[in-house]
Amino acid sequence: AQKVTQAQTEISVVEKEDVTLDCVYETRDTTYYLFWYKQPPSGELVFLIRRNSFDEQNEISGRYSWNFQKSTSSFNFTITASQVVDSAVYFCAPHTGTASKLTFGTGTRLQVTL
Amino acid sequence: NAGVTQTPKFQVLKTGQSMTLQCAQDMNHEYMSWYRQDPGMGLRLIHYSVGAGITDQGEVPNGYNVSRSTTEDFPLRLLSAAPSQTSVYFCASRQEHSGANVLTFGAGSRLTVL
Q1: Cα–Cα distances in Å, from B113 out to A10, B16, B37?
Q2: Which of A34, A106, B3, B71 has the smallest CB count inside 10 Å?
Q3: Which residue of A has its CA nearest to B106?
């Protein structure tokens, strides 16, 4: 069974600070995918990134970057120069290739203030 | 394209009442699923379907029924509502059941059971 841990329940930062959201997962599968979703205060769920287990390259997209380390089963998400619009709940979600189930972590609520 | 459409957006029920949450997608996606979101619990999978006529249980299926008579629709039925089913419900779909594909979520349905 898959398990995912987002140990940080809530993080508060001041605008322009960098912030890293941690995600640790457990899976017995060798092939799997990892996702991050964002849920802003309006409530919808927005896809941010997908990474497959064979690709350990870090990824940068604007102010967002992801650090995938298979050796430590972690898939951490960093926001550089945070902005108030980044305030949201962020979910990490692993998915194995053999199961039709995406397992969500409990989420990290990020509050960015001026 | 409308994407994933959920109705109603809000509903208040009394204990013991029944109701159906509707979910429709116009993307010809094979895979559809229902999640519930509760504070501090993340999103938990209720039921899912990999195609018309095929459904399966997720993590928290008790108290809910589903059917998939068409590719487009995946209704979630509460036969006898209980206060423990007070939650926000999300329907999601993706092209096919492979985990490589990104889930597209509906806007959510907030259900309160008194």
Answers
A1: 28, 9, 15
A2: B3
A3: A44
Strands of the sheet containing B4-7, edge to edge, are B4-7, B19-25, B76-78, B64-66
Instruction: Give the distance from residue A92's alpha carbon to the nearest chain B alpha carbon, in angstroms.
Output: 10
Strands A32-39 and A88-96: antiparallel
Compute the residue count for chain A: 114
Chain B residues close to A52, C-beta within 8 Å: 100
A43 touches chain B (CB under 8 A): yes
Q: Does A62 touch chain B (CB under 8 A)?
A: no
Given B59, B98, B105, which is nearest A44 (Cβ)? B105
Tokens of B103: 């889930």
The model's pLDDT over A3-61, given as tens digits with 9 standing for 90+, comes to: 899 999 999 999 999 999 999 999 888 888 889 999 999 999 999 988 888 887 788 88
Three-state DSSP class for residue B95: coil
